Amino acid sequence: MRCPFCGEPETKVIDSRLSSETNAIKRRRECISCQKRFNTNEHFELSYPRVIKSDKSSELFSEEKIKKGVNLALEKRINPIEDIENTFENVFQKCLTFPEKEIPSKLIGEIVMNELLALDHVAYLRFASVYLNFENKDSFTKFIKNLEKDLSPEMRKRQKQLLDND
Fold first, then answer.
1. For 61, phi and psi rounded to 5 degrees?
2. Beta-sheet pairing, 102-104 with 11-19
3. What does pTM read for this prediction?
4. Of 11, 58, 65, 138, which sits with the fewest C-beta atoms within 10 Å of its C-beta?
5. pLDDT digits over 106-123, tens only?
6. Which sequence spans correspond to the domains of the chain?
């Protein structure tokens, strides 16, 4: 690390600390030549895999595209901003750590749906209605009934009734 004061190429590390908020390492350094001290931050650099679409074409991963779809599903829903941010973070982390250099768009959709299922069932259904492209009303109703059967007790407490009991 070159000293920002005198340009000396050699510095020594006095102290290192991990920042829990940003997963960065903050280092306190001292120049060997002029003895001035300064701080540096080290961040890891990861890149998303390329997205393979259903027509086999590929494109760059887009956080904005995912945020747009999820925010559309969450529109007019009441969810704490921290929960929404955690949902995005979980989706992006799972995509970042995907072991291959290419990730199918179908898998991204499933990751998003799983995260929305944990956050808000109505948003999950909104997203699923577009993502799964239901053929007709009956297939959508069947999907909702299956969702209601598979709810955990915790999920039942957090969610409102999806369909009226007939």
1. -65, 140
2. unpaired
3. 0.65
4. 138
5. 999 999 999 999 999 889
6. 11-42, 50-158
